[in-house]
Design goal:
By secondary structure, the protein is an alpha/beta fold. It has helices at 18-32, 38-41, 49-59, 68-86, 98-107, 121-127, 151-160, 174-182, 211-214; strands spanning 5-8, 111-115, 136-138, 167-171, 186-190, 201-203. The chain has a six-stranded parallel β-sheet with strand order 3-2-1-4-5-6, with helices on both faces. The protein starts with a strand and ends with a helix. The structure holds 1,6-di-O-phosphono-beta-D-glucopyranose and magnesium ion.
Amino acid sequence: MKHSCAIFDLDGVLVDTAKYHYLAWKELADRLGFNFTLHDNERLKGVSRMSSLDILLEVGQMKDRFTQVEKENLAAEKNQRYVEWISKLDESELLEGALSLLEALKKKEVKIALGSASKNAQLILENVGIAHLFDVVVDGNAVSKAKPDPEVFTLGADKLQVPYERCVVFEDSQAGLEAAKAVGMFAIGVGQKHALPHADIVYPSLKNFPVELYF
Ligand code: B16
Ligand code: MG
């Protein structure tokens, strides 16, 4: 089936910001006095900021030590460091194949939406120079429910008035793929096949993506 709308996750699909999330979370863990590894960081992909903090504190066995207000301060501390990192992003941080895919879709007049859990999505899109390619941006500021709830994808499709079965979602997280499938969207996993069992199909990256097969 040919589709008329492409919905992109941001972190891990278009831009490799996971490493900056990791650096900022690790600084917080170091300050709180426990180790936070790259392996632990895998659990945070696609997860909202406050849920990420809960996972981090669980790793440090500090889950019940903080009040809600203290947790909000810890998340704000992490975000401040993260924003310092991503303020320096430029187009060299786009993942391989991302720009040519977006441009090919634009040429074919396919609608393009962002569906990201990040509250920093707009800043990232602007810094890597692709903000102008999106018809609609749905990010962590616009939704009340996190993936695997499909709200972040359905909101974009609804705004563009495209039926869900005509949408393709590009995602690197299991929760995101699950969300896409729940509303009948075609779910393309970006990453390793064994880690993304909910995908309809998995590509290792967006490099040389076969646009004609899907759009
Ligand atoms: P922020 P995505 C997600 O973005 C990240 O994968 C996840 O690691 C992060 O915690 C989440 O955004 C929230 O980000 O703290 O910037 O609001 O993959 O949905 O584009
Ligand atoms: Mg992601």
